[in-house]
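step 4 of 6: structure.
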Amino acid sequence: MTGILSPLGKFTMSFIDPLLQNDTFLRALKRRRTEHTPVWLMRQAGRYLPEYRAVRKKAGSFMALAKNPDLATEVTMQPLDRYDLDAAILFSDILTVPDAMGLGLYFEEGEGPKFERPLDNEKDILELQVPDMNKLHYVFDAVTQIRKTLNGRVPLIGFSGSPWTLACYMVKGASSKDYRTIKSMLYHRPDLMNHILRINTVAVAAYLNAQIDAGAQAVMLFDSWGGVLADGAYQSFSLDYMREVLRLVKTEKNGIQIPSIVFTKGGGIWIDEIADIGADAIGLDWTVNLGRARAQIGHKVALQGNLDPMALFGSPEQIRHQVQLSIKSFGQRAEGYGHIFNLGHGISQFTDPESVSVLVDAVHEFSRLTPG
Amino acid sequence: MTGILSPLGKFTMSFIDPLLQNDTFLRALKRRRTEHTPVWLMRQAGRYLPEYRAVRKKAGSFMALAKNPDLATEVTMQPLDRYDLDAAILFSDILTVPDAMGLGLYFEEGEGPKFERPLDNEKDILELQVPDMNKLHYVFDAVTQIRKTLNGRVPLIGFSGSPWTLACYMVKGASSKDYRTIKSMLYHRPDLMNHILRINTVAVAAYLNAQIDAGAQAVMLFDSWGGVLADGAYQSFSLDYMREVLRLVKTEKNGIQIPSIVFTKGGGIWIDEIADIGADAIGLDWTVNLGRARAQIGHKVALQGNLDPMALFGSPEQIRHQVQLSIKSFGQRAEGYGHIFNLGHGISQFTDPESVSVLVDAVHEFSRLTPG
């Protein structure tokens, strides 16, 4: 429990949910001492699990699965039934918001997400609107149902793509190899670029707040493509808008804290600045040295990451060794520091499910040996 | 002219080539004062130039062009005839060395380079040999011919892919999106990975030395894929081998200095360590803040970079503004610091050749206004 003196001088209390059976993840996000390092994996409910593939096949398409709260709940729970994970994450896609804006999200087999009606002219861009959140009720229904099914086992993470990352997909559909379309707009028509980003910012904040209302206990912004931006452009076109999203998103609900995580893939060079935008934790990819990042900014925010998903293709001994290096690199789980173990990117669909068992158990085993 | 007291106590002199009409690039590499900031562009002889496309068509294929010293000389000279560039770079490919090892380099239209006989089994890996440099005589012939044609106008840069980057292509041919094949080997069979890298290291050093013998006046290592490695793995599997290459490569020829540049794309987070491996300059991609990089390591090595190639899709005024920001960010060209203006990656084939004129002239104009 953390005491906060509000600006009005009124002493308010905000809590980590006392009804949770395992609050390790939320405690680590708030940089409080934990018995072990909590662990969850990006895309933990995914194609590497045969039971996921079975449900996905039954649903017919990725979006049919994501839009069916029963099935979304079922696949969200699958990795928790197999592994001793410390958090659940809503099964959904980062691009639901532009889909609700009317752009028509779809997936082609073996390719990334695309839009049927990408933004390819000035008129469409200027007419873009924050979508009615009712169009996303399937997401909020799933959140509520997952919370009910979890029944306090571990906390549930809600999420969205960052304003910039959504824009990468919205402009001319699937992003090109060199981001030529969107970067041409950024350098040549920054006014149009900023217009899209302002709409996205309001939409993403409303979307995360609705997930929190529905039961999400922490929220994460996936800035998957922030790392393709130049220094300077990153700050103006991605970071500043994420700061604004965080300003608009609730940090507590009924006196219970709702921590936030921001993850810019490829953003290791900017962690000093990312640590200042108001998130409780920042996600790190595998290029970042965990010990150095902790020394640099570990007292300001918690750190989440950052094993290379490809390390899961090693032998069990090799996986355990990599986990040990990572836990050692972060160091003691002292008060004022927080580490949430994760991969540096989503788990590969080709991962052996057994390797995930080895990983999760090794995180718990080695971190218990490193006194908090 | 720089005086060096050799370990034997003998006072030796090493020079920047006194016969060069424009030695700005070499002086900046050696962190000496220059009248203006020198500029060249990665892939400056390339598809964005109509005169290049004409020669490429005549040659029939990329490799036919690269293997013909007359044509390679012709396209190397093309951008120098159009723009006021301060250096020429050999027209070739980063993968000529594994091609000479017998792997069969080829290019498919619209795709990256591939090998006909990639390394996909242990036997082939263990039988890998440093190639006979005679198989690469077409490269050295081109170097000699380009030097002759340049006739002292500007210096000529030789280059190679880094040991790790070559390996990325050699193992199972074209690299997969998530580098699964090569990273699986790295995590699961580091012995095989290191075997390939040791061979590549010796081969790359011999290759660069032969380019120097043929007339290259500076050399550059392109570590295009170092940035996909995890912290720790980068140091062991890319950086350490580049350090060894640099140890084996000549730093002068007939008393004339041969400076070296190392460029790890996506390596901005590791510039402290890259600055320590013995190169004269490090290449930076656009994610790096030039001013901060200079403050961090600018007294140890020169810096080369780092405009986003996509900035060339802005208007002339916007391009000039980006150049100005960059020149200002680096600051004064004081003794002990060196900046070579470049892009943060190869120029896009869709660039308007006029935009390159604007860029090159703006670099010279603005840097002359910033006293050295």
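step 5 of 6: annotate
 - The first strand of chain B starts at residue 2 and ends at 5.
 - Residues 2-369 of chain B form a domain with the TIM Barrel fold (CATH 3.20.20.210).
step 6 of 6: archive
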